[in-house]
Amino acid sequence: MELTRKIVDGEYGSVPIAVAGVSGYAGAELARLLLHHPRLKFSRPVFYGRAGEMQSTSLTDLHPQLATHDGPIDPVHPFDWDDLVERGTNILFLALPHEQSRKWAPEALARGIRVVDLSGAWRLQQDDLRAVYKLEDVDPVLARELQAEAIFGAPELHRNKIATARLVANPGCYSTSIILALAPLLQAGIVDIDHGIICDAKSGVSGAGKAATAKTHFMYAADNLSAYNVFGHRHTGELLEQLHLDASQIQFTPHLLPIPRGILSTIYLRLKEVTTPDAVAVLLRDFYKDSPLVRIHATPALPQIQHVVRTNFCDLGFELAKDGKRLVLVSCLDNLLKGAAGQAVQNMNLMCGWPEAEGLL
Amino acid sequence: MELTRKIVDGEYGSVPIAVAGVSGYAGAELARLLLHHPRLKFSRPVFYGRAGEMQSTSLTDLHPQLATHDGPIDPVHPFDWDDLVERGTNILFLALPHEQSRKWAPEALARGIRVVDLSGAWRLQQDDLRAVYKLEDVDPVLARELQAEAIFGAPELHRNKIATARLVANPGCYSTSIILALAPLLQAGIVDIDHGIICDAKSGVSGAGKAATAKTHFMYAADNLSAYNVFGHRHTGELLEQLHLDASQIQFTPHLLPIPRGILSTIYLRLKEVTTPDAVAVLLRDFYKDSPLVRIHATPALPQIQHVVRTNFCDLGFELAKDGKRLVLVSCLDNLLKGAAGQAVQNMNLMCGWPEAEGLL
Amino acid sequence: MELTRKIVDGEYGSVPIAVAGVSGYAGAELARLLLHHPRLKFSRPVFYGRAGEMQSTSLTDLHPQLATHDGPIDPVHPFDWDDLVERGTNILFLALPHEQSRKWAPEALARGIRVVDLSGAWRLQQDDLRAVYKLEDVDPVLARELQAEAIFGAPELHRNKIATARLVANPGCYSTSIILALAPLLQAGIVDIDHGIICDAKSGVSGAGKAATAKTHFMYAADNLSAYNVFGHRHTGELLEQLHLDASQIQFTPHLLPIPRGILSTIYLRLKEVTTPDAVAVLLRDFYKDSPLVRIHATPALPQIQHVVRTNFCDLGFELAKDGKRLVLVSCLDNLLKGAAGQAVQNMNLMCGWPEAEGLL
Amino acid sequence: MELTRKIVDGEYGSVPIAVAGVSGYAGAELARLLLHHPRLKFSRPVFYGRAGEMQSTSLTDLHPQLATHDGPIDPVHPFDWDDLVERGTNILFLALPHEQSRKWAPEALARGIRVVDLSGAWRLQQDDLRAVYKLEDVDPVLARELQAEAIFGAPELHRNKIATARLVANPGCYSTSIILALAPLLQAGIVDIDHGIICDAKSGVSGAGKAATAKTHFMYAADNLSAYNVFGHRHTGELLEQLHLDASQIQFTPHLLPIPRGILSTIYLRLKEVTTPDAVAVLLRDFYKDSPLVRIHATPALPQIQHVVRTNFCDLGFELAKDGKRLVLVSCLDNLLKGAAGQAVQNMNLMCGWPEAEGLL
């Protein structure tokens, strides 16, 4: 990380960035991405703990893999709004439990700080869908306004709105994998949505978070596979809103894979009309022609988890039955990167007017 | 494991059993089950290699985990029909490539030896479905007769026919998991089969066999998940024939899991009429009330791979959507046991008139 | 595996066995072994929870893999001394935290019930070594007497004493693997003990117990390896006492492997005199010639974890340097079986006068 | 990888770099590192296949994880000396079998191309140690000269010589982990080398290469641990030469871990004099004070594989017994990075006069 280059005027100005909540898995990846981000070389991000974590610590203490030769790197400060304001913070990432994000996002906006929220707190516009998060608002009127203003942070769908947004709700990991696979086909109107779409998704254990529970115990997860939340996983709401479907039109069942990270979603649907693999390929490629973080596999190659892990890509592939109507889509991503921290940085890039994939390739 | 039977003279008489092909993973499990089988205590099974494996070896050399304190256990002889006949072999297990099974089964039957074939050679009655195996028959007329006579070795479906069969075609691992889940519902006529049934199946690596290939390399399989044979896996034919469906009514897509063994199939279907979880549970329990190797999970518990690995059970569970029509079945088994060697022994038990689960609990 | 015994009246009489504490991993294996034990077919063991676990449950609720077709198997009762006494309990397994075992063993003995304790509570005779467990005795005088009476339950070393013991302290998993490898050589007096013996041991995660902690989290253990307790793991005391060494003569460092179960210990030592591989092999084979649960590998084959997992064996192998003096021993076992539940049943067999390996092959 | 920055004069000149052999695991990492190397932004490396691989392919075909949104990236050309010369190649990485490297390095040097060889072909100066590789030289006189000229590419030990070397022999993965741990202590003369040093090393499966063999089969490696080459692994020669020890003074036994990548070496030794943990820590820190790719852990923290995987660091830690003389060192690295491709790039950096860790942090 020798930084011997001269600063070319204006090339990398100072953009004060802060992160609240870096103790989790997505937090670690977010820190890593920001510390290596070429636009932040001369404007190092500032890290804060969660509310109530009053002791200072360091990134290295939390995540030893991030250490340098010279020992503990960046401090992790107790959270402090005054400190944030003083530093002129421009964008604040919230990598917090959703209850806390729901409280803190308004606080940040009130101080003129833009927010990228990695939780589920602001993703859903419909109250009944959002109810699954059991959120309580201090100021319900304000919260309603902010909710309406919040942009769902899927850059491939809402690139322009994100660029100017004050509050970006970073999508769920499962939902990202499914939405990116389905959006092109649904927008093209070729899916028989009334037949119903089946999304069988499988995720590595990091998706379950850092809390030590019976289900994150090595002995539970290793050499195992289990389905859970067969109907009603809370990411379902994102599918409904972003894909404009109702609950009878799409089914999503997640499974817990015995691997650290990665999601593979296998999606089964019927097309309205007989079509060809080429036509589907063209449709996908065209939809994502300007999306540097989506890779379309040429049939018959299909995405695999090992090809996306530790990358910021979402990989898409498909196979069409000989009848020309039954389509199987396969979508892969790293749940901590394109499914969380990588997508959050992608949103930051857009919000700063930088190239979307800067620091992510 | 309740063994309340009285032990009577001659009950454990001599039943000459032989196995051809014990070098693979299913072969190892078959050897282990037979060596521990209570009815074979005084009639040790005899093991043979594949055609062309002319050197004698021992089970221990092939599978060190089977060794005893006293060193190499049972020899594995070069295959020899005369030897088989001399020993008065009653039942011969074929754990061989399907091409070889297709040739050897007629040879065995001609010598009065009953066969349990673990390959795909004899499972399919329809020529067009069986074509996927590219089998060549020395005597096509005889092969056609034997094919017609062959019984699909799913004890839960064909218990009585298996008991008297000369040639039992042990089912595929994937197909066992799917057929056992669907048979009760399809036989009850409650499934909307024209809507289509989706079977998303996931299997451990032992299902891919012992050959060292790019796909069985640790670096390919570990920390990965991949879909393959999205349409047209060769076990599909078994689903069609056993479940009396046509190819448009059922879709089956397998995935390779980063675990040694175990299959989990997630099956999505619609019911013709609104029903209740209780009604589905009753239907499943009733169907399998006399099947000691099927376990029905009480909703909301679902089967998991870790609960069936190293057992001879197939575990079934389900969840019904609130609409009472969309049903998700989850079926788990150990692909080497209930999906191969365990089911083969279950078939042997039936063929010998012994309790179906003898030596399998 | 050969069961040539005649089955005679009364052979399988009633032997009331009970287990306290079946909720853990070793408890599950203990239950499984006892339920399948041929001598207990007509005398089913009784299962109890830990102190304070007042609610009845079932083995199936705790360990779904143990279920039968007919649903929940054996109940797990709240612990109750009166119930134990009423049932005429002969042997009680304690699969409990060591503090609890230290309290309950005297209680059982006072009621005429023999004890096999799977914890570390009674393994060490020297107070200073046992201090690591921070045990408190209600009646220190009695505890001292019982401690002196307790037999270290390594059947290969103390077979005869175990047969008549009232209190058997089942050895630690790491210690079993190391003691069985070293005992023959040390007893033969051929090891240069003053040079120092290095034991580099590696264990699967089940050894860390069922509690969900930061270190048993899948994300910590998977794809990882870490050394811990480099000096001073509490199993060290067992090595010192059983092998008659002092702390300067043996070093033992454990590592956490990313696998569910299995221990491999690599042991480095120097011999006093130049010797040959054959001489070492003869010495090991001779020492274990009557030990059905120890398998000696013929050089150059070495034990591997996959060959002992789910077996009750300890596998031993070695390689001798060309100098004839530097010896590397490799010892493998399943930490839940030969390292815990399997060895406990082996002890029970001896205490009942049954063949040592009954129900364990 | 948006490259919108202006080129500051002279900052990143053109440095023609080529790689021969990118189909393996280390080749993939080498390609990735070079493609992201800041000094090579305007001078993209050129990739060639092995001898005999005559078909052009692409990095993406070989390693789909390296693909970009825009599809297949860099071509992989059939190997061609003329092409290399025409491009003015400055440094050639050889990621080839050692037999091929032994032949090609002289060819490259004869054409004025400097070589970083990742195989074992040029690492050992002593003929008897190198004999393990069974190398044949076309021109033995020249080979002897080049061997004498070859520099062992451990930057932390031979930084200055590497800078001007024509032929750098990149160290083995195991040897790197052990040499970096021991060099500071041995150079300080505080180790009782006559007592003997024990190196118990454990490596992930990628160390065994990409060839599909019985030992790289998922079913062999998964859920397993095995020792191999107990005495006489071919990396031992590097330890002897680099650490100036004879074969009686150091023992090195490798084990195969069930993980994709990472090495942990546990090293046991005795010090000549009683010392303190602080003194050891100071010694290590001082030795590596200018080595940006070595991280020293503060006792009692020890390195773990998960903290070095996907990094270019070697992590070192230790624990000293209370007697002040028995020392256990723990050394971790990623066998494909600091143990192969990362160290190769570190060598390239030195050879080009760039900061040692450029592109590696």
Sheet bearing the most strands of chain A, described? Answer: 8 strands, mixed
CATH class categorisation of the largest domain in chain A = Alpha Beta
For the largest interface, the chains and their residue counts are: A-B, 39 and 39 residues
Topology order of chain A in helix (H) and strand (E) letters: EHEEHEHEHEHHEHEHEHEHEEHEHEEH
CATH architecture of the largest domain in chain A: 3-Layer(aba) Sandwich
Unreliable stretches of chain A (pLDDT < 50, length at least 5) are 1-11
Quaternary assembly: homotetramer
CATH topology title of the largest domain in chain A: Rossmann fold
Q: What is the structural class of chain A?
A: alpha/beta
Coarse shape of chain A: globular
The overall pLDDT average of chain A reads: 94
Task: Tell me the number of structural domains of chain A.
Answer: 2
Number of DSSP E strands of chain A: 15
What is the fourth-level CATH superfamily of the largest domain in chain A? NAD(P)-binding Rossmann-like Domain
Keywords (chains A, B, C, D): Amino-acid biosynthesis, Arginine biosynthesis, Cytoplasm, NADP, Oxidoreductase
GO molecular function (chains A, B, C, D): N-acetyl-gamma-glutamyl-phosphate reductase activity; NAD binding; NADP+ binding
Subcellular location (chains A, B, C, D): Cytoplasm
Enzyme class (chains A, B, C, D): oxidoreductase
